[in-house]
Amino acid sequence: MRRLIYILPLGLFVVLAGYFAVGLTRDPSVVPSALIDKPVPEFTLPPLLKDGQGLASAELKGKVQLVNVFASWCVPCRVEHPVLMRLAKEQGVTVKAINYKDKPEDAIRWLNQGGNPYAAIGADQDGRVSIDWGVYGVPETYVIDAEGRIRYKVVGPVMPDEVERHILPLIKSLQGDLQG
Amino acid sequence: MLFWIVAAAMTAAVTALVLTPLLRGRRGSTGRAAYDMEVYRDQLKELERDLARGGIDERQAQAARAEIGRRMLAVADEDTREAAPSPGGPSISRNSRWAALALCVVIPFGALAVYVPTGHPNMPGQPFASREAAPPGGATPEIMQAIAKLRQHLKDDPNDLQGWLLMGQTQTRMGDFDASAEAFRQAVAVSQGKDPSILSSYAEAMTAAAQGVVPEEASRTFEAVLQADPHDARAHYYLALARAQAGDIRGALDRWVALVKQSPADAPWLPTVRQRITDTAGQLGVDVASVMPQPLPPSQPQGQSQPGAPPNAPGPTRDQVAGAANMTPEQRDTMIRGMVDTLATRLRDNPNDADGWLRLGRAYRVLGETDKATEALRSGVQAAPGRVDLMTAYADALIASGGSDEAPPAPAVTVFRDVLKLQPDNPQALYYVGLDAARTDNTAEASQLWGKLLTQLQPGSPEHAEVQARLDGLKRGG
Fold first, then answer.
1. Residue A81: closest C-alpha in chain B
2. Using a CB-CB distance cutoff of 8 angstroms, which residues of chain B are in contact with residue A86?
3. A33-179, which class in CATH?
4. Can you give the residue ranges of the Thioredoxin domain (chain A) (predicted)?
5. What ipTM score was computed for the predicted complex, to two decimals?
6. Chain A closest CA to B269's CA: distance in Å?
7. Cα separations in angstroms, A77 against A31, A85, A99
8. For B286-321, how does the pLDDT look when each residue is reduced to its tens digit (9 = 90+)?
9. Domains in chain B, ordered, with CATH?
10. Is A163 in contact with B242 (Cβ distance < 8 A)?
11. Residue B24 has pLDDT above 60, yes or no
């Protein structure tokens, strides 16, 4: 019986090593989202801009669109911003936004400088709604289909490559479903 | 010096602290025995008090007294035994004396050994106030002071355009891009947005402040710059970068290619743009060689035929050249004349500057003043006899001032013959001396010179064809 105690650390090590061995073979950037293919959570957010639209779950139905979670204090958001600008202004994609835990004046200054690609911006100052969305870091971007279901999620900045390879084809096929 | 005194005092204090218990030896334990005795004496007194109050009876008191007495004896016994020189005693105290001596040496020298390689006894003190203003980016206090002065000056005189520009440039160099963007914004406001280069600096600073991502406001500003000055390379460059950041790699590549095409070959930004083209072409999977364009010829003539020219020969500055591009022909003529006059005056004082004469002669040729050109080049040949580039330029000028292409004037032929003595395969000399020989019916010499010339020329080039035709003509004539 006492000898078993000496083997215990070895046993613990084997179990731990097993977990690590599995974990290391996975792609850390792929985070399973519980909300994929689920309808967007029920929420209503006040508008960020005085003359702009807020964001509510009811408005995310009827057409394929993107929801981007951003903040002026978030550095990777700067990198994806031109990509979103191009999606909205040149590639005809509707992009809406949740402004996550941000001071409104900072966010507005940020949009004045970098441009505003968003059709509607909901201000989520305490981050409650973002929790319902499963946001655990900014930026995050969701592709919402016409029924208001989350179909795809990008964690981190949206890169041109991602747009070409996944987002645009997905939007196209979702829009095709809508017409067909 | 004060530092060393303080350091020595501190070291001495530390050594003393460490040594005290060592040298005090066993006195500590003696103290404890006395303390114990005191406690037992107290207990005895208490015992008497209890007895007097009737808390305990005489028999119990007797027993307790005996117990306390036994303990006191034990303590006293131990005390005397330790105080008495035991066999182990002296050796222990000798050991501790050695240890004390060793520590006296080790502590000060150890401290020195640590301090000397890492410390800076001459480092100036840092009063709290100056530490607070610790400059970002490692600027010296002088620069910080200058910036503070400039900031104060701009507060008093916010319409000083040069001040804002200087502020912007300085902050850029210091890496404070938010501050530099703000300074350039003020400069744009003061200049009412009329100067495209200031707008361009402003947009560039905004981009730097956004960690290199071109914000939309900067893009708009660069577009405005291009409206005012379609040749602003910075605007072209950053607009292309903006396309790349938005994911339009093809658009970015096209813009960078266009920028190279309209840049002179000696433009300082070319290497960067070429690198960008290489990168984006790689991203698109396009062969770089197929898209990499040729730039314009260099804006400053490189002086192909003046190998002896010093590299810092005073020519027009880049600004002057850039300025000249925007001038009317009359203005440009005036500018060139101004520079030529300066040069001529300088050469009058220093007639041995052969390169100067060569430049002056070329300038006169450009202005169409052939006689003055000939004169300047003759002075050049006299200043530096045997310089082939000067001699050919001089002979060229002689041909231009008198005679025709078919019949070079005699002085020019003489100069060219001298050139051939120095450089037997000089093509210009071969051609013109050959021409002279042919004209004077010296067919053998002409065909020999032209034959030599022909071997140097690229077959298929117009020059080759012309010399070939002349050779054929000689054969037919002869």
1. B246
2. 246-248
3. alpha beta
4. 34-172
5. 0.75
6. 24
7. 19, 12, 11
8. 888 888 888 888 776 544 433 333 444 444 555 555
9. 2-118 (no CATH), 141-291 (1.25.40.10), 314-404 (1.25.40.10), 424-478 (no CATH)
10. no
11. yes
